[in-house]
Design brief:
2% strand; CFAP91; cytoskeleton; cell projection; CFAP91_dom; Cilia- and flagella-associated protein 91
């Protein structure tokens, strides 16, 4: 199906390309056998580097064909000189390959160093942000404490201003009971009064609820309509037939009542 073809494509399930068996005729050296070391994923499909390697192998085979024969002593010096030149050429090519590889490794190293610097910068920025947040929190707490101390000292100064000479004032009971914001109605905890300390004195204590004798007396004083209930079966709201079915007119009346409501 389309879904299966999408999840499991041929490219994901494809194995390495098939290489059939071959027979080499005697006396022939096919050029294709020089590429037997290349396999799928390691040189195949061929790229620019593989093409350059094939071209170098062709040039080397052509150079080997031009070498003088070994049967003449006068050609040995020429052959040795040609082989030394080829060896220097191979060494120069190898050095160039090493330099190219070093350049690639240097670029990779630069990229890794750049990434590490970016990660370090992000870490430093996060650390500085956390440090700044902690300082801001300490600053807010300090400001809150200063404001609290300011309000406290302001109340003390107002109290001293109301009694500059330090004279003892007589308690005005009428003024305290007429002002519902006074200490009589709304005492403050900072002056040493905690209203929750004596909360049990506000609990309602009733003889008829807390004792068994009171409950018996309360039950005897109640009328019979409270202790002995009489239930009446409700009358049906709809007109029914003898068999128990509701008439159509009654159903229509209920529907009209619901619509009206």
């Amino acid at each position: 199906t389309v879904g299966t073809q999408t999840d499991y494509r041929d490219g994901e399930a494809q194995t390495d390309p098939y290489s059939p068996e071959y027979v080499v005729p005697s006396g022939s050296v096919p050029e294709l056998l020089t590429l037997a070391t290349l396999t799928w994923g390691r040189g195949l499909p061929a790229g620019l580097a593989e093409v350059e390697m094939i071209e170098r192998a062709r040039e080397k085979r052509a150079w080997e064909a031009t070498l003088p024969a070994m049967d003449n002593a006068s050609q040995i010096t020429k052959r040795r000189k040609m082989m030394d030149d080829m060896e220097r050429k191979e060494w120069a090519f190898r050095e160039q390959e090493i330099e190219t590889l070093q350049k690639v490794r240097l670029e990779v190293l630069k990229k890794l160093l750049r990434r590490r610097e970016e990660n370090q910068k992000e870490l430093d920025a996060k650390r500085l942000d956390d440090h700044w947040q902690s300082h801001q929190k300490a600053k807010e707490e300090k400001i809150k404490k200063i404001q609290h101390d300011y309000a406290l000292m302001l109340r003390k100064l107002i109290a001293k201003k109301n009694n500059v000479m330090g004279k003892l004032e007589r308690r005005d009971i009428i003024k305290e009971y007429t002002d519902f914001a006074s200490q009589t109605y709304a005492p403050l905890s900072r002056i040493g009064y905690f209203p929750d300390n004596h909360s049990e004195r506000y609990v309602v204590k009733n003889f008829y609820l807390n004792t068994f004798a009171g409950l018996c007396e309360l039950e005897a004083s109640l009328p019979d309509s409270v202790t002995q209930l009489k239930m009446k079966a409700p009358k049906p709201k709809h007109t029914t037939t003898k068999t128990g079915f509701i008439k159509r007119s009654a159903r229509l009346e209920v529907e009209l009542a619901q619509v009206h409501q």
